[in-house]
Design a protein that fits this description.
By secondary structure, this protein is of the alpha/beta class. It has helices at residues 17-29, 50-63, 78-90, 101-108, 126-134, 145-152, 154-159, 197-207, 222-233, 263-268, 273-279; strands at residues 4-7, 35-40, 72-73, 94-97, 140-143, 161-164, 174-177, 187-190, 212-216, 239-243.
Amino acid sequence: MVQVTRFAPSPTGLLHRGHAFSALTAWHAAQAGGRFLLRLEDIDPTRCRPEFEAAILEDLGWLGLDWEQPVRRQSDHLADYAGVIEALQRRGLLYRCFRTRKEILDAIGDAPHGPGEAATPGPHTPAEEAAFLAADRPFAWRLSLDRARDALGEAIWNALAFIEEGAGPDGERGRIKARPETAGDVILARKDAATAYHLAVTHDDALQGVTHVIRGEDLFEATHIQVLLQTLMGWPTPVYRHHRLLAGEDGRRYAKRDRSVTLAEFRAAGVTPAGLRAELGF
């Protein structure tokens, strides 16, 4: 089987050393006769910008990476994700959630839930939903874990699992039982947005034939709900490899929001691609 990997950044800022490590890890994994894909996950119109997209392409090219064309830009395929939402709606697996973040926190404050479960209030009553729709109140489409479990049946639900070739935050590796309940009833779309992260990423990995998802360990927990979506939609579950996160001298992991030193700044300071690759262990 040909190994297909991908690097899927969001163009919401400039790439830093942590991004370079992740991209190089995925790229090198595909060098022995495999395929490497670049995908731009730009479904957030308020934060994604064309200049960041152009910078991503420039930075990765400077690092010496190459990738298949065309690059998939998620914002060009919103109809694909809307189709998945419609399919899940027809099966009765989604519900409209009109609650604000504060209302959800208040509602689950005293809600009973088991160890390791993420509590969510669940669907509104029919009367509440009708009133909110009449008032044109904004809402999100959430995946009902209870309905998904009923749809799959206990045997399939209990068999949900994925293969981890790297390691989770607590050293998890090998065959791991998926526990979607740790995520709760996640948002898959909103009234004014065709998709959210979990749906878009699982759809595209299946569509593009990704066999190995290589990404940071901060996304390890997301795998549990993504395995459920893959099973509900009949999509294959890739092999996962979650790698360590790079951190600065202060011990904090690199992040766009912290204005970590960018690859553009390294380049301007005279750092060479070979030098950065060597520093990162490649």
